């Protein structure tokens, strides 16, 4: 199989994947709405109180300070939300016979999966831009320049790539569409136990230990530093390392699952 | 037919899942440009043979060559010459019929401009012209099967596997599928099909392999198989609604013996029939073929017989 076929088949599968989003808008709307709802909930319901407790803000912060604090975490949540959708659409593929048909065709094997991954990266870009636009409408402002924002989106897309491989594998491993929509749920919930919504210093010891060392924390901290115009320091390298590790593990798991898809 | 090279060669094929033996040493040769039917009840191993030949499944033992290519070591090249329509519709329900065919053409690396005409022709041929631009999820069961078949044909495979292609189709659609299979064979395509319908094997196949419990119990032309059961059968309808099929060699003695064994008060009617593949199956396996949808009962009968 030559590389031109890998590219050509992946583009064909990507086109199919994007067409699915268009044909099944309710899923797309739900996944885009999820981070936005959390953003509204946290800013308007909890934001006043939580903002007052933010460290490093003289005299206590307000709702707008809190908006600035959680926007990076919400963006990470948007990435996880799209990844959840990927698990669902992969599982939907699996529930029909179409994947078995693809496997009897002389196509680049990986294209079935790369179609999903490329599609998810595009959707993530779209979702995070929409989420960010809502944040800006609510009053979010950034001191960062273009270069820092590009770096921030680099982190977002790298995470999207990593989480998508993981959720492609979950979708392949799930025995039903329902399972596939449940198992990756922890990815959407995990940002809550991180530095995303409240500083980890205030958490009880065990939880704090987990929150400080879980993969989303360096990603959120990097985004927070980059979008406020500061240097992310070692957090950025840690974030990149986590993404590469998750991507590799997800890819290997997905490939393994794909070769043992039962014939129908 | 004899001097053609085989399109499919299967030797000593074995497959089991744990303790369950699905294929127990199957040998099969399908000459190019012919239709070969794998006939057998549910669970006989028909689909497993098709899955192994179409590179979906690996065998535990045995050699399978498709178009002179090894299905394991040359699987990519095998895939480039085959087309598969499985038991479950392998269509993309969110795409329209036309988009499904285009998807197949794109994946077969055909040129879109040149393939457009054959997409239209195939949609018309399979009676999907009016529904071409509707999403496949709105199609009826029969339409989905026809679209599935069209997706197999659009890439012009030299060899087609059809796994129970007409199961669940109405008689008209079934005859339509048969006509399409015949057209393909007239173009030189080889077809391996599985079926539970003896009538289908009889109508379509050049040769029939009868599969039961993972073994081939007979192989030959429909006529050869029928010859193994010379006289046919006597069908007895009982007054309580039961019916029984009793093998007969067609002689007066055998008829008399059967009639002597019947109680006049219990019998509603007696028909003497010439041999068909049902008789072949009964004679070869000792149990009748399975009526789809009635498997449990038929399995129980098989055990009793």
Brief digest:
Chain A has about 260 residues and is mostly helical.
List the helices and strands and how they pair.
The complex is a heterodimer of chains A (264) and B (305).
Chain A: H1 3-23, H2 25-52, H3 63-95, H4 98-103, H5 111-137, H6 146-173, H7 177-182, H8 185-189, H9 205-213, H10 216-227, H11 234-259
Helix pairs in contact in A: 1-5, 2-3, 2-5, 3-5, 3-6, 3-10, 5-6, 6-10, 6-11, 10-11
Chain B: E1 6-17, E2 20-31, E3 35-39, H1 46-53, E4 61-66, E5 69-70, H2 75-81, E6 82-85, H3 97-107, H4 112-125, H5 141-153, E7 159-163, H6 171-186, E8 190-195, H7 198-204, E9 207-212, E10 215-220, H8 222-227, E11 233-238, E12 243-247, H9 252-260, E13 267-273, H10 277-285, H11 295-304
Helix pairs in contact in B: 3-4, 3-5
Question: What do these coordinates show?
Answer:
- The complex is a heterodimer of chains A (264) and B (305).
- Chain A has one domain (3-260).
- Chain A has helices at 3-23, 25-52, 63-95, 98-103, 111-137, 146-173, 177-182, 185-189, 205-213, 216-227, 234-259.
- Chain A is mainly α and 264 residues long.
- In chain A, helix 5 (111-137) crosses helix 6 (146-173) and helix 10 crosses helix 11.
- Chain A starts with a helix and ends in a 5-residue tail after the last helix.
- The model of chain A has no long low-confidence stretch (mean pLDDT 89).
- The longest helix of chain A has 33 residues, at 63-95.
- In chain B, the strands form 3 sheets. In chain B, strands 6-7-8-3-9-10 form a 6-stranded mixed beta sheet, with helices on both faces. In chain B, strands 2-1-4-5 form a 4-stranded antiparallel beta sheet, covered by helices on one side. Chain B has a 3-stranded antiparallel beta sheet with strand order 12-11-13.
- Chain B starts with 5 loop residues before the first strand and ends with a helix.
- The chains are: A mainly alpha (264), B alpha/beta (305).
């Amino acid at each position: 199989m030559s590389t031109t076929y890998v590219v050509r088949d992946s583009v064909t599968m990507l086109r199919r994947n994007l067409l699915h989003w268009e044909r099944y808008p309710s899923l797309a709307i739900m996944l885009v709405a999820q981070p936005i709802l959390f953003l509204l909930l946290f800013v308007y319901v909890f934001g006043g109180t939580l903002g007052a407790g933010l460290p490093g803000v003289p005299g206590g912060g307000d709702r707008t300070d809190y908006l600035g604090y959680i926007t990076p975490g919400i963006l990470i949540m948007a990435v996880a939300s799209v990844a959840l959708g990927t698990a669902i659409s992969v599982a939907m593929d699996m529930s029909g016979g179409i994947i078995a048909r693809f496997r009897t065709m002389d196509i680049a094997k990986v294209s079935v999966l790369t179609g999903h991954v490329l599609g998810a990266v595009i959707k993530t870009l779209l979702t995070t831009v929409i989420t960010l636009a809502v944040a800006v409408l609510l009053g979010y402002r950034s001191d960062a320049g273009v270069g820092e924002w590009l770096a921030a989106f680099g982190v977002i897309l790298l995470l999207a790539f990593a989480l998508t491989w993981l959720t492609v594998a979950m979708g392949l491993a799930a025995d039903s569409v329902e399972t596939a929509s449940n198992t990756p749920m922890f990815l959407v919930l995990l940002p809550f136990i991180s530095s995303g919504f409240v500083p980890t210093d205030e958490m009880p010891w065990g939880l704090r230990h987990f929150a400080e060392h879980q993969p989303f924390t360096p990603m959120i901290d990097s985004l927070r530093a980059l979008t406020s115009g500061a240097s992310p320091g070692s957090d950025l390298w840690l974030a990149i390392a986590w993404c590469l590790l998750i991507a590799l593990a997800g890819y290997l798991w997905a490939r393994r699952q794909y070769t043992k898809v039962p014939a129908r | 037919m004899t001097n053609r090279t085989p399109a499919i060669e299967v030797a000593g094929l074995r497959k089991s899942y744990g303790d369950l033996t699905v294929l127990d040493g199957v040998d099969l040769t399908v000459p190019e440009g012919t239709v070969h039917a794998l006939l057998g009840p549910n669970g006989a191993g028909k689909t497993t043979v098709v899955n192994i030949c179409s590179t979906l499944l690996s065998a535990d033992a045995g050699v399978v060559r498709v178009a002179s290519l090894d299905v394991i070591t040359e699987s990519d090249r095998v895939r480039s010459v085959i087309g598969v329509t499985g038991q479950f519709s392998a269509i993309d329900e969110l795409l329209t019929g036309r988009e499904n065919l285009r998807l197949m053409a794109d994946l077969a690396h055909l040129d879109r401009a040149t393939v457009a005409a054959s997409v239209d022709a195939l949609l018309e041929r399979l009676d999907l012209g009016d529904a071409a631009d509707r999403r496949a999820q709105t199609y009826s069961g029969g339409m989905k099967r026809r679209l599935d078949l069209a997706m197999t044909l659009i890439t012009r495979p030299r060899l087609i596997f059809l796994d129970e292609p007409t199961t669940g189709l109405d008689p008209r659609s079934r005859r339509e599928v048969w006509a399409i299979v015949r057209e393909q064979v007239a173009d030189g395509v080889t077809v391996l099909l599985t079926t539970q319908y003896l009538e289908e094997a009889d109508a379509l196949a050049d040769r029939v392999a009868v599969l039961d419990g993972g073994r081939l119990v007979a192989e030959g032309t429909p006529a050869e198989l029928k010859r193994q059961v010379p006289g046919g059968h006597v069908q007895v309808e009982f007054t309580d609604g039961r019916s029984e099929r009793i093998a007969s060699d067609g002689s007066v003695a055998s008829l008399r013996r059967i009639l002597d064994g019947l109680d006049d008060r219990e019998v509603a009617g007696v028909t003497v029939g010439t041999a068909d593949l049902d008789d072949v199956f009964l004679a070869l396996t000792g149990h009748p073929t399975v009526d789809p949808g009635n498997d449990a009962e038929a399995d129980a009968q098989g055990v009793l017989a």
